[in-house]
Amino acid sequence: MDIYKVELKDMRADSCRYEYELEDAFFEAIEAPEIQKGHLHVQLDVKKGIGVYHLSFHTEGVVTVPCDRCLDDMDIDVDTDNWLDVKLGADYLDEETCITVPEEEGYIDVAWFLYEFIELSLPMKHVHAPGECNPQMMGALNEHLSHMAGDDDFEATEAEEEPENGNLTEREDGQPTDPRWDALKSILNNNNK
Q1: pTM value surpassing 0.90
Q2: Running along the chain, 193 residues long, what does each successive block of 10 average in pLDDT?
Q3: Long-range contacts, stretch 69-73, CB < 8 angstroms, 24+ apart
């Protein structure tokens, strides 16, 4: 993982470029919580400014993550540009706009930043396109959902939770209601008038 340590203090030119190939071993080495596999190319340009180093990352490739619906692996394309400002100081400090690294060390380890930039570029929901999820898992999921929504056991469970001293009343559609909810609804209706 030493290749991800970018030398700043002893940087000879005003700018330099690093290129990385991120494979499955990278995600294993940093113990990535979300992404376990991938193949990405990263281009990192470092420019020396007055008292600050500007790091510009361009990342392209594909990562493999589990589908939120069926849990099978799915590939997601990544194409992202990110920036990071770094300065040298007495201690490590992670501020919103700038990272300070100890001057005595003189470098920044960008491995975790690379991972975070990739993860933040992914959509919130990871789901296959319609019809591409694992059919066995989808069958089990649909069976479970239909069981929860309309099964007699589900209705019996609700009826068991009624108060011992109260009787259920019926709504207009014939479904039972709990009198405690009716009391709360009447309070709400009075407040809306």
Answers
A1: no
A2: 90 91 93 88 95 95 91 93 94 88 92 94 89 82 65 40 47 64 71 61
A3: 69/127, 69/128, 69/133, 69/137, 69/138, 69/141, 70/128, 70/133, 70/134, 70/137, 70/138, 70/141, 71/134, 71/137, 72/128, 72/133, 72/134, 72/137, 73/37
